[in-house]
Specification:
This protein is mainly alpha-helical. The chain has a domain at 3-123 and 203-283. It is built from 10 helices and no strands. It has helices spanning 3-16, 19-48, 53-66, 69-84, 88-116, 125-163, 167-199, 213-235, 239-243, 247-284. Helix 5 crosses helix 10 (247-284) and helix 7 (167-199) crosses helix 8 (213-235).
């Protein structure tokens, strides 16, 4: 399908499927899932923070790469407060609350992607929630591995700088290690999109794709939107003046909204490309696509 036709169909479907409204819904659920997740993470780190200060510092550095700076202060404040009072009981409660709350967000993704793909969900509430919890755990592992790749890249790059005597060789090796770390992290980000698009909607037939056109657009769009939001907040930070102490929360919610929007935009692009492929297949067999309700294969 020509890119112009994909753009036209996607633009029309964005309004027909209420993508902007569903993105706001996802943004709320993402925000709702954040702090229980921080409770779990901070409870565990609070038990080992004194012996893992360097890892803790690097973790905060990489959070600053993706979360707007003005919102990061509020997140870290909550993070540090819960870390200071961590206990084994809170670890257990935080883990359960984090998985359950995050699965609510994944359930919202399931519902919105079913709308995008024009699918009637045939799963019971119980089965859909089991799928959501499993997908939550899988995505948590992938994101953790992506963060570990960034942290590991910096760690081994610093190690190489100290162990290699030749200055120019130090630069080449350290730079190569960091590039590998970023490549692995971006590959895992692409894997997150692929897992969401493959497992979240209730598709009857599934074909695995490591990287889809919609996934590529979603990833690039998310990175550009995050960068744009950071630039806007740097030069035109009016959230604090408008919302007062809630400005940081509004900023964070805005970032989550853009994340949900990019996920749905990628799904819309994929759905229309797959629908066009189905139309060509029907036309090749002499069937008029206009007389049939086309499925959205995945």
């Amino acid at each position: 399908m020509p890119a112009r036709e994909v753009f036209r169909r996607t633009w029309t479907a964005i309004f027909e499927d209420r993508v902007f409204g569903h993105a706001a819904e996802l943004g709320f659920y993402f925000l709702f899932a954040l702090f229980p997740t921080l409770l779990c993470a901070s409870s565990i780190l609070g038990l080992a923070a004194r012996s893992a200060n360097q890892i803790y510092d690097r973790l905060l550095d990489y959070l600053a790469l993706v979360i707007p700076t003005s919102a990061l202060g509020t997140v870290l404040s909550t993070f540090n407060e819960t870390t200071a009072s961590a206990s084994s009981g809170k670890v257990t409660f935080g883990l359960i609350a984090a998985v359950w709350s995050a699965s609510v967000g994944i359930s919202a993704i399931q519902d919105t992607l079913n709308v995008v793909y024009k699918i009637q969900d045939s799963r019971s509430y119980f089965m859909a929630r089991i799928h959501a919890i499993g997908l939550t755990i899988l995505l948590t592992i992938i994101v953790s591995l992506g963060l570990a790749a960034l942290l590991g890249g910096d760690y081994f790059a610093r190690l190489a700088s100290h162990q290699i005597p030749d200055h120019y060789l130090q630069i080449v090796v350290a730079g190569s290690i960091r590039v590998i770390g970023w490549i692995v992290a971006n590959a895992l980000l692409a894997l997150c999109f692929a897992v969401i698009y493959h497992w979240a909607p209730d598709c009857k037939t599934r074909r695995w794709h490591w990287l889809t056109p919609g996934g590529a657009v979603g990833i690039v769009g998310l990175l550009l939107a995050s960068l744009g939001l950071r630039v806007y907040l740097h030069f035109f930070n009016s959230f604090t003046m408008t919302y007062g102490s809630l400005g940081a929360v509004i900023t964070l919610l805005t970032w989550f909204y853009m994340t949900g929007l990019m996920i749905l935009l990628g799904a819309e692009i994929n759905s229309h490309i797959e629908a066009a492929a189905a139309e060509r297949l029907l036309a090749a067999h002499g069937v008029d696509p206009g007389r049939m309700r086309l499925p959205y294969p995945h």
